[in-house]
Amino acid sequence: MNPCMQSFIKHLERDMPSHVLRIKKEVSPEFEVPAILQQVEAKKKQPVIIFEKVRNLNGSISELPLVINLFGSRERLADALGTTVSKLPFEYLAREKPVEPVVVDRSKAAVKQVVQKGDTVDLFQLPIVTHHEMDLGPYLSSPSVWVKDPETGWTNCAILRVYVAGPQHLVVNFNAARHTNYYFNKYKALKRNVPIILIMGHHPAFYMGAQTKLLTDEPKIIGGIMGEPLELTPSETWGDKMMVPAQAEIVIEAEMSTSEVEIEAPFGEYTQYYGGQRLNPTCKVSAVTRKKDAYYLDVMPGHADHLLLDAPMIEAYLFDRIKAVVPGVTAVHMPVSGAARLHAYVQVKKRNDGEPKTAIATALSSDYRLKHVIVVDEDVDIYDEEQVLWAVATRSQWDKDIVVIPGMMGTRLDPSANDIVTTKGGIDATQPVDRRTFPKRITIPESVLSRIKLDDYLAPDVLKQL
Amino acid sequence: MARVNYVACPSCHREYYIDRILSDALETNPDQTLKCPFCKKVFNLGTKTGAEKPKAANIASPAR
Fold first, then answer.
1. Cα dihedral sign for A269, A271, A276, A281?
2. How many helices and strands in chain A, by DSSP H and E?
3. Measured between CB atoms, does A252 come within 8 Å of chain B?
4. Cα–Cα dist A226/A98, whole Å
5. Mapping DSSP to helix (H, G, I), strand (E, B) and coil, where does residue A238 land?
6. What is the pLDDT of residue B47?
7. Burial degree of A223 (CB within 10 A; 0-12, 13-18, 19+)
8. Which of A359, A321, A383 lies closest to A87 in space, CA to CA?
9. Three-class secondary structure of residue A210 per DSSP
10. CB contact under 8 A, B59 and A418
């Protein structure tokens, strides 16, 4: 049986207990859940938080506990792939290969333990969160939305925000999707509505696999990232024409209209600003299935939970693209300070002084959202922003080391941009290749650093305070 | 800089903003319904209601 979200949480509670916090006091999903997470984050902590007693949209206590911040730690994401933080993008690249899914009978599909169809569907039984003050209302923020290409049969997976307009009624923010939009237009040309599957809650490896940038049948890549074939089972609404992950916590089946739109948003987005109210396709829910002891997964928009899920995949993609032209690239990091999409720190072991600007130009043209790139040497830890900024302070000059490219394609969600057109730039914060012309960085002898152990000098209770 | 268009809810009078595409759509269809994120009331800016048209503002971030 595939690992799932709950098996991952059990592993965390057993092997990494500081990564899980359980709250037993009753909470409301309207602003209270986000407020608690934000206050925990203010203490510089990023545990998974499980709310055991949360109200649903009918006002009663939900049968389902709510999980938030599952993806809020690079350490957890790396652990989900059995690797370390610095190796995570490379491990992702190594696994990003197709693995054929397997079909399992519904008797082996935990997601079929509870089934609601037709008039019995009631999304208001779920503890759906309203996150930010100007959000239009409760949103599904964690769904991996599956859409099948009517021509090739390939399935595209995209995490999309979905407004819950009624007990059987959704509005999907469609404008942000790209491959999905491409398939949507095919259905529109055929004058058909779009069958969609919304998967709420699965193992982090599942979600990371679903973030692949490859134009392919994405459930196969999910299997590659998970390290085993993804188990699928037929949906309630379309049978084996649309398959669903057998070990998901919750699956929502719906039809998206290609002709009817309605109001959606404002919604607080990854840039930490609200996207304005807009028109988006309306969806009618035909079935909801789940585990009988399902956990409801929410993702906190604009916070690490939201930003980090995609970051290793973007880093892996950028690394690959840069490596083709600058072989000495050693790592790429998309920091949370740049919403994990607008800034990139690139570490290189350069062979010539033209490589940093080449890396900048390559990175900026590889992802439309990326706006600023800082290139540093291999002695700078790109996961430590103090070090990156120190390199900018001491290894760059405005008249020689800056790249500015106006008029490039950017993201509308960057409020400083002119709609979709933005100015991009980069800083070469590297030393010259000929290091003899450059001062030496201060160091303490390694032989002394490795010999000194703090517990030889400080009492345990004092050390604990550190 | 980004350009967002603020509208005022005729029920609770709080302001929020709509995106450029919707704002353009309202030019040809002023009866398009909108929904206030604060009081959740549905309204439109059509000429029948005499309600305020969206006011455009060049801002870098939304007003609270």
1. negative
2. 12, 23
3. no
4. 11
5. coil
6. 53
7. buried
8. A383
9. helix
10. no
The b-or-e profile of A188-209 (16+ CB within 10 A means b, else e) is: eeeeebbbbbbbbbbbbbbbbb
Taking CA–CA distances from B36, the nearest residue in chain A reads A136
Nearest CB among B1, B17, B20 relative to A416 is that of: B1
d(CA A261, CA A315): 35
Q: Which residue has the tokens 């394609």?
A: A409
Is the Cβ pair A419, B2 closer than 8 Å? yes
What's the CA gap between A96 and A101, in Å, rounded?
A: 14
Report residues of chain A scoring pLDDT below 70: 175-177
The whole-number pLDDT of residue A99 equals 97
Judged by CB atoms closer than 8 Å, whether chains meet at A277 and B19 is answered as yes
Question: What pLDDT was estimated at residue B49?
Answer: 43
Q: Does A273 touch chain B (CB under 8 A)?
A: yes
Q: Of A274, A278, A418, which has the smallest distance from its Cβ to B21's Cβ?
A: A278
Cβ-contact A144, A158 below 8 angstroms: yes
Residue A7 CB contacts under 8 Å (≥ 6 apart), including other chains: A203
Query: Which residue among A137, A278, A416 sits closest to B2, beta carbon to beta carbon?
Result: A416
Measured in angstroms, the CA of B55 and the nearest CA of chain A are apart by: 13
Tokens describing residue A239: 């049978």
What integer pLDDT is reported at residue A177 of this predicted model?
52
Q: How far apart are CA A220 and CA A210, in angstroms?
A: 9
Residue type, A67: V
Compute how many other C-beta atoms are within 10 angstroms of the C-beta atom of residue A445.
8
Backbone angles phi, psi at A118, to 5 degrees: 55, -125
Instruction: Give the chain B residue nearest A273 (alpha carbons).
Output: B61
Token digits of residue A461 = 């209770």
Residue with the two structure tokens 């999910």: A222
Residue type, A332: V
Residues of chain A contacting residue B8, judged by C-beta atoms under 8 Å apart: none
Residue type for position A96: E
